[in-house]
Amino acid sequence: MTCQARSSYLADEVLWGHRFTPLLSLEEGFYEVDYGGFHHTVPVPTPACSARQLA
């Protein structure tokens, strides 16, 4: 399954160290999309610096 979208964000809208929650699940051989969690994020362990600073 492929999805493609284009958008832009302001700096205060970007959550550093977060990922979107999973929306797809496989139920009885069919994929189900949970649109209720579309805007939900969860924190993940992420360095507080850029990749360039880590190199």
From TrEMBL:
Major localisation: membrane
Membrane topology label: Multi-pass membrane protein
InterPro entries attached to this UniProt entry: Ig_E-set (IPR014756), IRK_C (IPR041647), K_chnl_inward-rec_Kir (IPR016449), K_chnl_inward-rec_Kir_cyto (IPR013518)
Gene3D superfamilies, alphabetized: G protein-activated inward rectifier potassium channel 1
The keyword Protease appears for this protein: no
Record has Membrane as a keyword: yes
One GO MF term: inward rectifier potassium channel activity
GO biological process, one term: regulation of monoatomic ion transmembrane transport
Name used for this protein in its record: KCNJ5 protein
Domain of life per record: Eukaryota
PANTHER family: G PROTEIN-ACTIVATED INWARD RECTIFIER POTASSIUM CHANNEL 3, INWARD RECTIFIER POTASSIUM CHANNEL
Reactions that this protein is recorded to catalyse: K(+)(in) = K(+)(out)
Gene, per the UniProt record: Kcnj5_2
Compartments in which it is found: Membrane
Domain Inward rectifier potassium channel C-terminal: 1-54
Family per similarity comment: Belongs to the inward rectifier-type potassium channel (TC 1.A.2.1) family.
Keywords from the named record: Ion channel, Ion transport, Membrane, Potassium, Potassium transport, Transmembrane, Transmembrane helix, Transport, Voltage-gated channel
Cellular component terms per the entry's GO annotation: monoatomic ion channel complex; plasma membrane
